[in-house]
What does this fold into?
Amino acid sequence: MGADVAAVKTAALRGADALPVDVEVSVSGGIPGLDIVGMPDHSVLEARSRVRCALRSSGFELPRLHVTINLAPGEIRKSGTAFDLPIAVAILLATHQLPPSIARDALLVGELALDGGVCPVRGDMAYAMLAESLGLALVTSAESGLAGGWETGARGVRTLGQLRQGIEGLPCLSSHAGARDEGPAAPSLDFADVVDQELAKRAMTIAAAGRHGVLMVGPPGSGKTMLARRLPTILPPLTEDERAQALLVHSVAGQDPGAVTRGERPFRAPHHSISTGGLVGGGRPVTPGEISLAHNGVLFLDELPEFDRRSLQALRQPLEDRTVSIVRVDGVYSFPCDFQLVAAANPCPCGHLGDPGHECTCSAAKVSAYQARIGGPLMDRIDVVVDVARPKTSRVIQGGFGTGSEEMAREVAEAREFRAWREKDAGEGRDPVAAARLDLRAQTTFESLADGLALGGRAIVRVARVARTIADIEHRERVSEDDVVEALGFRSRALT
It folds into this structure.
């Protein structure tokens, strides 16, 4: 008896990308059964049971023949449940229960329920981008969270039996389909709610305008977390490209895109007990970590010294490269992680060092050990350090408002526009300090103070960039002495 062969196009997730995979099915005589080859993991092998039940529940027949399923190319490890739908369709094609045209120009992904329903899988944005690049129509679950403001051309299927009517009969998944499931927007946050913290707000404005990392140091209850959570309110909305990138990472991680679909920048605040893999990515299968979920947004690390030291040091390279590479035996997985770091810390274990209203009970050795947990290399990559003092009791009780998000956002937007105009007019030099364009007096002051503070090369470059941002906020083409002094004031602050 000859073998009947059919092939269906699908994909496998690898990092933030989807790689094309062909599902080849051969039906021949022999002992009845289903064999899957092509480096499948346990979750893929379990598809045999799901496919059998789904075919029977949908009114199809699974002939008592030997079915061999090959996932090509065989050198790529396959994991996840997205292969259920293409395997079932390939079997139906090989047994002539569906016409060959049904999968000719389609890329199929989806998990099958035992009753024949098609369930969504993580990574739908990656699959949609691959299908678009290959000129194919993505066929996936009708419950998929595809969204992002651009036309995907994907089609949704609810049950396996729907495929009898062909691909053309399936409804298109609107590129705005996720909007109906977004739910109500989160309550609006505003910097005006933070009382008596004008210096910290100034630091936040500088950080937002220049995309600088910022560390807030102060006693418990001083408002550090309130300040951090309001940073996205003064950042510009996501562009279409940035939103697509953020949606891609959330999709691959299987996370609800939430505010990202509304154009709001991601804000991630992991607990300090998080593992290194949870922070930078990893696991099996390899999925993005918190730094990638914060891509094009804000990563807030509260109680910074309480984080595992290895986790903090793992941030050093991603902060520089804006991408994280995770090496495994079967290859390298890469995820984008262009985030803005915001951190908060107490000045000592009890939290009251330097607080005039409370006495610190920590010894000098405990304070030194606590502050050393952050590590010099990571601190060297944080541009702005600001002391956040406890607000005055009278200001809190009397109420009132300070600088609000609207005013701060306007300053940030104008500073970024001025920088874009300045760089377009003057161009960027190879020397970052020279590109800051310090005037003569500022340069002299900078040299003197940098020598006194014993700043290293990286620190000097970062101070120059912060000073350049301050000058952009003030719409000055050249960095003044005051800009340098203010930048050094934020840089030279210690945890004490």
About this structure: Residues 405-426 form the longest helix (22 residues). The chain is about 35% helix and 15% strand.
